[in-house]
Design brief:
There is one protein chain. By secondary structure, the chain is of the alpha/beta class. Among the domains are: 164 residues, P-loop containing nucleotide triphosphate hydrolases (Rossmann fold), CATH 3.40.50; 79 residues, no CATH class; 167 residues, no CATH class. The chain has a seven-stranded mixed beta sheet with strand order 2-3-4-1-5-6-8, sandwiched between helices. A two-stranded antiparallel ribbon has the order 7-9. A two-stranded antiparallel ribbon has the order 10-11. Helix 3 links the parallel strand 5 and strand 6. The N and C termini lie far apart (68 Å).
């Protein structure tokens, strides 16, 4: 059996989906479009398995966005691949009047429908009392109160779904409104050709038949019916909405008891007066972001130090116990160094995603969009652009995909172009290690971490430049469309801790599995490139080393380190880095950093793994941690490689550079053109080079 889960945004649909399916979930794409398709397995009873499809949220059966069109086509049976035997309409009990519009439209399609009432506890706090029995009688379909968080009503919902699928609940014969009266003769004519349609479905055939899977003959026939009957889709839609709300008001009077609207405002409204204040709202927002980045840096420092110490100890132990040969070198300097570069940053990624999930669950993330709409409009965007931009702090790929919710094409393209300037979690390992090397671990006023402030500064730098780039780019992108910003502010809720933990674990798994594979492969390739070189060059270095060892009073330890450094410099990796060095030298970078810039184009976080491999090769004892090795690195003239100027320049380079193949690929996919990813790569690379050069010149 196939069950489709539908409902308004912020109605609790995702919570119900997670409760019904648990961990038996898969994420794919609806065929032909870049919209996520979440499916999950569940059991209605011992012998009745079912597949649940979580359709994108929509407010009505009049789609405007790509996501809404996906749901619409499934509900109108216009999707070849996705079929639904039963529709579960999730309705927010605290906003029942608005939610019933969509529910009644579904009922009039004459498909098997079960209504799941969520947010009953919130409705009770608002003083709203719902007579579920009366509501069920008025609508003619099963209505079940559920609380996914506390698992209340789930068994009853499963039973109602099973009984509806077995036709123990009959589809209501009477329409909720007089759909035939909306377009009398036109509806009759359409039903002559498609007798299986309900009156209301016939209305939608008249409105959106161009987007339906119909033969050319049928398309022409429906078009002729429209012309013959002077069918006006806009007028029809307006009349339908008015009729539905008239009928919904009657139902509300019968089945719902609401408090006097003049009573004192709710906690949500009082809190919004503060959080959405013209002045205090922005200060609070900056405070929230400040705490977010301070927490990421401070909380993660403890497990990161333990992991770093553990891998250093393991590497040292293996080096001392294994014989000195190629395979032991591969294990300690290739595999162990690569693994260390992956695992050490898992705590930061988990903490960052966990905190972002808490902001979303609490309802504050939507307030951020509302609060920043005026600022966004001044640079060519709108408030909806904030969500992809904030999501970009986690990862640019899903953030760019979430820009589909922006209806205006120009604003969507601008959002996609600037979202990679948000410092994603992949940059976090780069910032962390560079900050720990070049920024002193001191505190202002005894509690404000300077390192945390620098971290926040890097994030804000990307945000500010993104707004500037958008302001400039809006004059060059010639797309003229009207822009609207309509946003529902959800009620404040206590975060779902189980959901937060689940998200943290999932993101950690994705990082280790997806980014980890890339890091490990590149680490092993780098080990090979760093360990081998052209035979002639390596032979000359070996001969020179032997001659130096044979001299009286030779310092064997010093010569061994010099031999390892010479081998690395003349390896294939060294040759690659040396060829790039003239281009990056004005930024303060040496050839090792050049290698890291090349390899980290696969994934930004590979920078740390590259450094770990390059600084481990030739270090037989592995006594120092990576940070200490990088701090101790010096140039031929004796100056430190990672000075304050070089460190800041490198951090700024990673703030602005497009160092991610996956992001370019997803931009091409979302814009369906190579034009925008090419523009994005060029402008971000130039911006990174110029800003890094300025920073280096000012600080050196």
């Amino acid at each position: 059996m196939h069950i489709a889960l539908v409902g308004n945004p912020n109605s609790g649909k995702t919570s119900l989906f997670n409760r019904l399916t648990g961990l038996n979930q898969k994420v794919g794409n609806f065929p032909g479009v870049t919209v996520d398709k979440k499916t999950g397995a569940m059991s209605l009873s011992a012998d009745t398995p079912a597949e649940v499809i979580d359709l994108p949220g929509t407010y009505s059966l009049y789609p405007r966005k790509m996501d809404e069109w996906v749901s619409y086509k499934v509900l109108l049976h216009q999707d070849e691949d996705v079929k639904a035997d039963v529709i579960v309409a999730v309705a927010d009990a605290s906003n029942l009047k608005r939610n019933l519009l969509f529910c009644t439209q579904l009922i009039d399609l004459k498909v098997p429908v079960v209504i799941a009432l969520t947010m009953m506890d919130l409705a009770a706090k608002k003083g709203i009392k719902i007579d579920i029995g009366a509501l069920e009688r008025e609508l003619g379909v099963p209505v079940i109160a559920v609380n996914p968080r506390k698992q209340k009503g789930i068994p009853q919902l499963k039973k109602a779904i099973e009984q509806t699928s077995q036709q123990l609940y009959q589809v209501p014969i009477r329409d909720f409104i007089d759909n035939k009266a909306l377009a009398q003769n036109a509806v009759v004519d359409v039903k002559k050709r498609f007798p299986e349609l309900s009156d209301y479905a016939a209305v939608h055939y008249l409105i959106n038949h161009e987007s339906f899977r119909l033969s050319d003959t049928d398309q022409e026939m429906v078009e002729n019916i429209e012309i013959k009957n002077n069918f006006n889709p806009t007028k029809t839609q307006a009349e339908e909405i008015l009729q539905r709300y008239t009928r919904i008001r009657q139902i509300m009077q019968t089945a719902v008891s609401e408090p006097d609207p003049l009573q004192k405002s709710l906690f949500t409204e009082k809190l919004d007066n503060i959080l959405l204040h013209r002045k205090w709202g922005y200060l609070i927002l900056l405070g929230v972001l400040f705490l977010l980045f301070q927490s990421v840096f401070w909380l993660a420092s403890f497990p990161m130090d333990w992991i770093d110490a553990g891998f250093t100890s393991l590497s040292q132990s293996l080096s001392s116990s294994l014989s000195d040969n190629l395979w032991s070198d591969l294990l300690t300097n290739g595999i162990i160094a690569g693994l260390g570069g992956i695992v050490i940053f898992v705590p930061q990624i988990m903490i960052l995603f966990g905190l972002i999930t808490l902001l979303e669950d609490s309802g504050y993330m939507a307030r951020i969009s509302f609060l920043t709409d005026r600022l966004m409009r001044s640079v060519g965007l709108n408030g909806k652009s904030v969500m992809p931009m904030i999501s970009g702090f986690a990862c640019a790929v899903p953030a760019i995909m979430s820009a589909r919710n922006i209806e205006n094409r120009k604003e969507r393209v601008l959002t996609i172009l600037i979202t990679p300037l948000m410092s994603c979690s992949a940059r976090l390992p780069v910032y962390t290690i560079l900050i720990s090397i070049v920024i002193p671990k001191t505190y202002l006023l005894g509690f404000l971490s300077v390192q945390g402030l620098v971290m926040m500064g890097l994030y804000l730098l990307g945000l500010v430049l993104a707004l500037i780039v958008s302001y400039v780019a809006k004059w060059f992108i010639k797309i003229n469309e009207k822009s609207f910003f309509i946003l529902e502010l959800p009620s404040y809720r206590s975060p779902r801790w189980s959901n937060t933990v689940q998200t943290m674990v999932e993101k950690a798994k994705i990082f280790v599995r997806d980014a980890g594979k890339i890091i490990m492969i590149i680490s092993l390739i780098l080990w090979a490139l760093s360990s081998f070189g052209p035979g002639k060059r390596i032979g000359m270095i070996t001969e020179k080393h032997k001659e130096q060892l044979e001299r009286p009073g030779a310092d064997t330890m010093l010569l061994a380190k010099q031999y390892a450094a010479d081998k690395l410099e003349n390896s294939y990796a060294g040759i690659m880095g040396k060829s790039l060095e003239p281009v990056i030298a004005p930024l303060g970078y040496d050839w090792k950093i050049g290698i890291a810039l090349i390899t980290s184009f696969a994934a930004r976080e590979v920078f740390v793994g590259t450094m770990a491999t390059l600084y481990s090769v030739g270090d037989e004892e592995n006594e120092l941690r990576l940070k200490e090795k990088m701090k101790a690195a010096v140039r031929p003239d004796g100056t430190p490689v990672f000075s304050l100027a070089t460190g800041v320049s490198l951090m700024i380079f990673y703030v602005f550079a497009m160092q991610c193949m996956s992001t370019l690929a997803i931009v091409k996919r979302e814009t369906r053109s190579w034009k925008w990813p090419v523009i994005q790569f060029v402008y971000m690379t130039l911006l990174a080079y110029i800003m890094s050069f300025i920073a280096y010149e000012l600080l050196k």
